[in-house]
Each structure stands twice: as C-alpha cells, then as structure tokens.
Amino acid sequence: MIETSILKWLQEVVNNEQVLLTPINGGANNQGFRVSSGTEQFFLKCFEPHNSRSLSKLRNEYAFASHLCKAEIHNIGKPIAYSEELKVSLFSFIDGQTISKLTASHIDAALAFIEVINTPAIFDESLPVASESPATLYGFVDIIDKRLERFAQLSLNDNHQLQSLLQAIASRTRQIAETVEPSWHEPLQKTILSPSDFGFHNAIETSSDIYFIDFEYAGRDTVWKLLSDFFAQPAIPVPLENITRFLQSAVFSQISQRRQEFVTIYELTLMKWCLIMLNEFIPVIEQRRRFSWNNSCLNINNDVLSQKKQSQLEKSMRYFAHIPEKIKTLDKYL
C-alpha cells in the first residue's frame, strides 16, 4: 500500500489529484507502480526507506538517466521527478514486454546502446564511478573477497551446502589470486559509461524499440567489468558465441588485445554472480526483498523467503558447477 505522503507528492508532480496506481510485480529491491493520470502514464519507483544505500542509488539512477536524456538517448525511461525525502522517483512509463527469448536483433540493440552512450560527446567525468568498479584487475579478486566476508559474519553451521559452496569459491579465487601477473595491480581507467547491472533482465521491448532501464549502479566504469558482467548475468543468459561481435567494437578494443586475461576476469565474474545469487541470505538484502514484495503478511513473507533461499542456493550451485564449461566455451570463441 502506498504511503499517503508519496501519493500527495505524486499528485503535485503530475498536477492531478485523480491518479490510479497499479503495482508492478517482479522487482527484487524496490516497489514499482504504473501511474495513470488522465491520458498520461508514468512509472513510480519506491526505494526501501530504511536502507542506508537507498538515497545514493536513487540519486545515482536519476542523475545517470538525466545525463542520457540530455544527450538525446531515447530508449530509456525519461526521468520526470524525484524526492530524496520520500526516496521515490518518477519516470515515463514504457509500455512493452519483458524479453524472454533472445534473438540476434536483441543482442545487436544492446551493443548499439553501449556504443551510443560511449560516444566522446556523451562521456562525462563528473558522473560517479559505477558500483563495484575495480581500481585494478586484481580488484575483481577483491570484489569476491568482500562478498565472501559478508557471509563470514553469518552463522551458517546448519547449512552445509552453502558452506561447501562458499569454501569452493574462496579456494578457486585464492588459486587465481596467486598466479596473476604484476600488470593486474596497475590502475584501470574509468573510460566508459556503463549501466552496470546491464542485461536483458533490465530491458523492455516495445513494438518499435528496446529500452534499457535500472541505472541504480551505473556510472563511469571499466570495459572489463561491463563485458564480463553482460555475459555472466544469469537471469537471461547471453550465449558466448556473441562475444566476438562485442570484441570487434571499438569500445572493447582494450580487451581484444588481452584476451587471455579476460578469460580469468570472466571466471572471477562468474563466481561473483554465484555469490550475488545468494543475496537472500544477507540480512540487509533480506529486508529489501521483503519491502519489494509489498506484502504485509509476515508469515507469507517468511515462507517465500525460505523457499527463495533454497531455490537460489540450488541455482548458485548449478551455476558454479558449469563454470569450467563456460570457460572452455569462451576460450573457443576467443
């Protein structure tokens, strides 16, 4: 149920007291609503009000979307207004469908989007650094270590499957860390703009275009993270056979010259995603999940969360088991 203060703010922004809000299900961290105001449609995004990172994510997303909108990038949600006090933002509504089956045209659209937002005229040094953007190649190891540390603070004695998986990830990460070249400690330049959480799980297809959304973690980034994340994202996997067309793009020319190092970065990124799949076990993220479900019944939420934890653990275990196969496939296309 929407807060009265948010409803009042919304009515003032759209200049209409008669607004209809329809919940949009599927979000993992926030609540979303389709807003009908006369003949106009909007998307209202409500961030978890008690989370310490909500305000920074709200600001970051709105600033990144505003920058792209100013640069006349049209296949995004147009930012309308936001409230730091209420931790909400309003965008134009994209009337389309989620993407479930990928085609070559979808992948071409994703590459075209990255290329267009990375034309020299659009890049802006004043934009923030993207979330988890590593300072060096060794930073990909640090990302995993930091995520593992979050689990080390929890009591997992009764979950042997989870313990075993975390130990396997930690062991393989240490093996990689002990064999990297000195160049892995050299600074990486944040030379591109990245949506950060970029993939077709954050895309909407209309009759005329493909729109990319959700820029909470966006900003200046490295090509290594953008490319490895795009091909590691598990929600709607992109077949690795498509990586050759990305490496032919000028945006990723740096990786084309260091392909074997990218194989290692990709393996680290796959393990990072194994840990991301286990986010439901982290208390602060558990709180965000409960908020996004927009359900006041505690028992239902507890049951859903328990089932979700087990489901995500099983998914992560399968994903980890398939990493050697994915690395072998990547080697073939490089």
TrEMBL record:
Keywords linked to the UniProt accession: Kinase, Transferase
Any GO molecular function: kinase activity
Species of provenance: Pseudoalteromonas luteoviolacea (strain 2ta16)
One Pfam family from the record: APH
Occurrences of domain Aminoglycoside phosphotransferase (ranges): 21-221
Protein name per Swiss-Prot or TrEMBL: Fructosamine-3-kinase
Domain of life (superkingdom): Bacteria
